[in-house]
Design goal:
Largest sheet: 8 strands, antiparallel, barrel
Radius of gyration: 20 Å
Strand order of the largest sheet: 1-2-3-4-5-6-7-8
Number of helices: 4
CATH superfamily of one domain: Calycin beta-barrel core domain
Order of helices and strands: HHEHEEEEEEEHE
Structural class: alpha+beta
């Protein structure tokens, strides 16, 4: 007699599980780091300064949801130990809020991990990688994060000014697509 409600409960749980799987698309997997370029001969002292975010792409970026993303800035300030204090100035509800963290240098120049990771509950790993930069006009960064056992990745296009040339835009789109992303995963913040 007691098995009837148990079987009904298990059947309902199975149906809900299948429905949940069908309603959430599988994210595009992060490419292995060895497939993502790293700026050769990265120069820490030349990279520091204020950068505008001109483009963002990633497996958690959704063009429809993020189409009105406002342009924000990231400032890299080099410390004596070659780590960076990284400050983001994000527009939020009619004001700009600063948020900061530290990037710790890794075994390769241009490759960083998140400092004080324990202060970010759920984040198991976080890597920042300088893909390319000319140090004074543009840079492309690649970020991977494992949060609650789910890996995500993001590519960010930095500019020293708010200007985004068509050539730079096309190069960014091409790079994002080379890592498996589609147009729906690429946005260009509104100045």
């Amino acid at each position: 007699m007691a098995l009837g409600p148990l079987w009904l409960g298990l059947a309902l749980w199975g149906a809900l599980h299948i429905q949940a799987q069908d309603s959430t698309p599988n994210p595009i997997p992060a490419p292995p780091l060895h497939k993502v370029p790293l700026q050769p001969d990265f120069q820490n002292e030349l990279f520091q300064g204020k950068w505008y975010i001109l483009g963002v792409a990633g497996n958690e970026i959704n063009e429809e949801k993020h189409s009105q993303l406002k342009m924000y800035t990231t400032t890299y300030e080099l410390n004596e130990d070659n780590s960076y204090n990284v400050t983001f100035i994000l527009p939020w509800k009619q004001r700009c809020d600063p948020w900061g963290t530290t990037f710790i240098p890794s075994f390769q120049p241009g490759l960083f991990t998140l400092g004080n990771i324990e202060r970010y509950p759920g984040i198991q790993s976080y890597t920042a990688r300088v893909v390319t930069t000319d140090y004074n006009e543009v840079a492309t960064m690649f970020f991977t994060k494992v949060y609650n056992n789910q890996e995500s990745f993001r590519i960010t296009l930095y500019g020293e000014t708010k200007e985004l040339s068509p050539e730079l835009k096309e190069n960014f789109i091409g790079f994002a697509k080379s890592l498996g992303l589609t147009d729906e995963h690429i946005v260009f913040p509104v100045p």
